[in-house]
Write a structure and sequence with these properties.
single chain; 654 residues; alpha+beta; seven-stranded mixed sheet; six-stranded mixed sheet; 22 helices
Length: 654
């Protein structure tokens, strides 16, 4: 191995000694730390070669196409730079071509603090301290040794008259092997995330794209992994750096929500902190969610989900269903615990956000804390327990598949109250479960799960919290447990915006094109297609067909209405009674499905056919299922401003 030269000394004309001066002919003096150019008697400057030529390097682009192979120390001294950063980038580019990288070393300053020279070293200069290698009780594998005392370096110094930095000395002797091109580009000094790369990274992260997918995409756009200027680990380090800048995650979330409120006068958020100032609960709902609740807020469902942030805090999303039978978000909450007081706070804030309007029905998984909070804050709402969770609990607590099957039948079938009680008693008796405390407690809550006991109560088709579970599953695709609270809120808001776009798409499909008639009651079918959204119409159409074969068994006239006894074709033993108020044009069936689901079922359809009515009466049309439901919402919001409530609406952001 070739011996490296001794430690380079700064030239006599740029010694850097404070107050040093020399009157010798052809010498450069340093007075008060300012380097002056050579005297007129000097033959040439440091930036001149034998022919008096010099190379100005004002940016790294000036040397992008330089052929580096023939450059020696004499050639290197021709270059001069406007500042130290350009000089560093110049030497680092040279190092990349040669197969090593550069790091900055010590500088020399004058008494006034002005830097007059600096060294740039090979990345393998020096040695690692032994204490860092021999430390006891290391849990991680010791990092590989990357330094071997290499003496290669370039020194630059400031020439006072020109104000430029010249190469004073250059040593290109290495005591280690050089890396080939692709490996050289992997050295840390040659890897850099540009500002455009960081902006693209942040944008794709907000869209829920994983780091690996982002890196693969950038590599594909660059023409290959070897064409990128950074590695995947650099992207992860950049994300860590950005998170560290967020000194307080909770504060960052509140600032973000405040920013959303600046563009949304209907934005509402509220938080509750511990005595030591740490975030305990957070609730927010934007203007669209609040207007949605005014139209579609008869039914509310909520459930908690976990592992959606690095703190493990449960997330509770309060949802409903719109006129396209799609899940919509009314509000979102971050909790630190699931105690009763936490849910009381959530529902209290929810009512404040919704201007005091209460839902008529609430569906949850039946957690005691939720149930107690609903009893306190929403005492008039009918609380329904999720059918899926009840079946899972039945399997765990009883463990008999026959009971689970019989329980499911009692819960979901459209039975009469007497038939339900008889069937339940028989089920418990056959399986000898009379003394089972869980089964007895379940029956005591039957008004919260038995279909026959909730007949006539509107649940918009909800029987389970599956809409919540489905949303949690979708959110889990873009949100991970390592995400900060701010990242979760940002990702969640983006997902909600996507949900709202699907609503626009469903609205487009509802108004474009005419439905091809398929039933025997085409006049009613055409009317339903014009009134209801496409999704609701497709749910109603089978009942139009079955209603066309409903028969009238008897008619009874009372002082207030006409009562029609109806039965299905070939089933005269199963009668349903439909009351028709001629003056008010109202219809009520004993099956109460109209009240439960919000649109007419076969018995009422059969009576409309019997009476030759070709247009669905207004009393049978629930506004929330109509195409015009959004227009209703818009009218309500505009009327709030026109009626003098503008101050209240603007007060939402306070």
């Amino acid at each position: 191995m070739e011996d490296c030269p001794e430690e380079l000394q700064i030239p006599s004309w740029c010694s850097g000694e404070e107050g040093f001066s020399s009157d010798g002919e052809g010498k450069t003096s340093v007075v008060a730390g300012i380097v002056s150019s050579p005297t007129p008697n000097s033959s040439k400057s440091i930036a001149e070669d034998e022919n008096g030529e010099a190379v100005d390097v004002d940016s790294i682009d000036d040397v992008a196409n330089t052929l580096w192979d023939g450059i020696d120390d004499i050639e290197m001294k021709k270059f001069h730079f406007p500042n130290r950063q350009v000089a560093y980038e110049f030497y680092n580019l040279y190092a990349r071509v040669k197969g090593f990288s550069v790091r900055k070393s010590k500088v020399f300053k004058t008494k006034k603090g002005q830097i007059v020279w600096q060294d740039f070293l090979c990345h393998k200069e020096g040695f690692r301290e032994e204490k860092n290698i021999m430390r006891e009780n290391r849990q991680r594998e010791t990092k590989v040794e990357t330094r071997c005392g290499c003496c290669a370096k370039m020194r630059i110094c400031l020439v006072g008259e020109s104000g430029r930095w010249h190469v004073a000395s250059f040593v290109d002797c290495h005591n280690h092997a050089m890396l080939e091109g692709k490996q050289s580009s992997m050295l840390p000094a040659h890897r850099k995330l540009k500002e455009g790369d960081i902006l693209g990274l942040n944008s794709m992260r907000k869209a829920g794209i994983s780091t690996t997918q982002i890196y693969n995409l950038i590599a594909d756009q660059s023409g290959g992994f070897d064409k990128t200027n950074f590695l995947k680990v650099d992207m992860k380090n950049q994300m860590t750096k950005q998170k560290q800048k967020e000194h307080c995650d909770a504060k960052a979330v509140l600032v973000y929500l405040k920013g959303l409120g600046s563009g949304d006068p209907g934005m509402f958020w509220s938080h509750h902190a511990h005595e030591e100032g740490k975030l305990k609960q957070l609730f927010w709902a934007d203007g669209i969610s609040r207007m949605d609740f005014q139209v579609f807020g008869e039914v509310l469902a909520f459930d908690a989900t976990y592992q959606k942030n690095k703190y493990g805090c449960p997330i509770v999303v309060l949802v409903g269903v719109n006129h396209h039978c799609q899940t919509i978000v009314f509000g979102t909450t971050v909790l630190t615990n699931e105690k009763e007081e936490s849910y009381v706070w959530v529902l209290d804030q929810f009512l404040a956000a919704m201007k005091g309007k209460e839902p008529n029905a609430v569906i949850t998984d039946g957690a005691p804390a939720m149930r107690n909070a609903i009893t306190i804050i929403l005492p008039r709402a009918h609380h329904r327990l999720c059918a899926w969770h009840l079946l899972q609990n039945a399997q765990r607590n009883v463990g008999d598949s026959n009971f689970v099957k019989g329980f499911k039948s009692c819960m979901l079938e459209n039975l009469s109250v007497g038939h339900f009680k008889k069937k339940w008693t028989q089920l418990v008796s056959d399986l000898n479960l009379e003394d089972n405390a869980w089964v007895q407690g379940l029956y005591e809550k039957s008004h919260m799960w038995a279909t026959c006991l909730m007949r006539g109560k509107f649940f918009a088709g909800f029987q389970t919290t599956s809409r919540c579970e489905g949303m949690h599953s979708q959110i889990g695709r873009i949100v991970q447990s390592r995400n900060s609270l701010l990242e979760f809120v940002q990702y969640f808001e983006r997902y909600v915006n996507y949900m709202r776009w699907t609503e626009v798409d469903a609205g487009y499909k509802s108004v474009v094109g005419d439905v091809v008639p398929k039933t025997n009651v085409r006049a009613l079918e055409k009317c339903a297609a014009n009134v209801y959204t496409r999704t609701v119409f497709l749910k109603l159409r089978p009942w139009l067909n079955s209603g066309s074969v409903i028969k009238v068994a008897a008619i009874k006239e009372t002082s207030s209405c006409m009562i029609y006894s109806m039965y299905k074709y070939c089933k005269p033993g199963k009668l349903r009674h439909v009351a028709h108020d001629v003056q008010l044009s109202t219809f009520r069936c004993s099956c109460q499905r109209m009240e439960t689901f919000g649109f007419p079922y076969d018995h009422i359809i059969g009576l409309l056919v019997h009476l030759d009515i070709d247009v669905i009466p207004g009393s049978l049309i629930l506004q929330r299922w109509c195409k015009a439901a959004n227009d209703c919402m818009k009218d309500n919001s505009e009327s709030s401003y026109k009626s003098g409530n503008q101050q209240f609406w603007l007060g939402w952001v306070l």
